Amino acid sequence: MPSTGLTLCGRGQSVGGGDEAWLNPDNISTAGDGTQATCTPAARDFTDSLRADQFGFAVAGDITEITVRVRKSGSSGNDFEDDVVKLFNGTTTVGAGKGTSDTWPTSPTDVDYTWSEAELTTAGITAAIVNLSGFGIEISAEDTASGSDTAKVSEIEMNVTYSGGAANTGFFKLLGQMP
User: CB under 8 Å to 9, separation ≥6 — which residues?
Assistant: First the structure.
């Protein structure tokens, strides 16, 4: 099936919902330059949601899988866990939350979150929504330790897998041939 390949977001935003805003959220839209979005909530508090959008997709057909790769870390070991990890349809967060209770690593590490075709269908994710500039992902974290530590996100990428749309398979089926 065709896919977009991992595509870096075009914009990062701190969008509220927690106890502390992200600083320099747009740093997640630049790959490999060492910059990060950072957030330092008080002990046992939550970061605001960090939204990544403007992926620039132009897909067609049925969306069969979405994988989001987040390069993230915390300033100290075992201090941060995911709070919310959800898709954003351009208006609101939708679908299954993918946050885990795994602690964030102390050095920048790629962590993948994947939504299946069934989860995407239930959430109403279509090619038209994926192609919106406002389509994206929101992630927030909880500082689970007694000290004030810093959550860091270096970049967020997304891969969209879809069926159909790339080739007119209906035409080939009509002729009795397959590409």
Answer: 28, 29, 52, 53, 54, 55, 136, 137, 155, 156, 157, 158
Domain ranges of the chain: 7-175
Half-sphere exposure of 163 (CA within 13 A, CB side): 5
Q: What is the pLDDT of residues 110-138, one digit of tens each?
A: 999 999 999 999 999 999 999 999 999 99
CATH 3.30.310 applies to domain 7-175: no
The secondary structure of 103-161 as a DSSP string is BPPSS-EEEEEEEEHHHHHHHT--HHHHTSTTEEEEEEEEE-SSS---EEEEEEEEEEE
Task: Judge contact between 76 and 151, C-beta under 8 A.
Answer: no
